[in-house]
Input
Amino acid sequence: MITSVWLIRHGQVKDHTVFHGAESDVDLSPLGYLQAQAVAPIVANYRPEIIISSGMKRAIHTAEPIEMSCHLPLQIEPLLHERKVGRLVGTPANGELGIWPETLERWVQGDIHHSSSGAESYADLQNRIIPIWQRITTVNAGKRIIVVAHGIVNRVIILSVVKNLGLSDWGKIGKIGNTSITELRKNQDGWSAIKIGEIVSAVSQLNQKYNQEKIT
Output
């Protein structure tokens, strides 16, 4: 019996240049809505049996076109929300220096309990997310499952459950982009990754068009 899960990150959010943690229930940008609509028919072709979403707006509004395309009810899992980032909310998301790069470096080095003020540590994330993952995949064993969540949520799941992967592989698995698809499968040997962070061509074309319009 094989259980198959597609982990999908939500679409691009409004003001995507700053951190939006669990503290900021921001909606999708216009591009984010288009990304969600573009990925929906691809997901429908996968013929899922269960669709589950984080309870945050950006995840729900990404999941709704999928729900309509697949003709399945959307189930909400509030504990799959974005990481609590504390005082990082609203600060620039890019940069080689600062609280987040330092936090990530500490995590990869094994200090999973490190966090800045008001933020979740890696251990906190695992303790919140993995029990939900185990329940979802146990209750729906042998089914094709869609989970729409957040980049760091998906990454924690991948690094925690896929055999031969761990926290030190954070950078090796690449970017988990908006509406990217990660496919995990479980058989008698455990979980394996079929693909990680794949961007479907329809979304890639939207992203290219958006970037070209910004330049011109």
Q: What stands out?
A: Strands lie at 3-9, 50-54, 74-77, 144-149, 181-187, 190-198. DSSP finds six helices and six strands in the chain. Residues 37 and 65 are 6 Å apart (CA to CA).
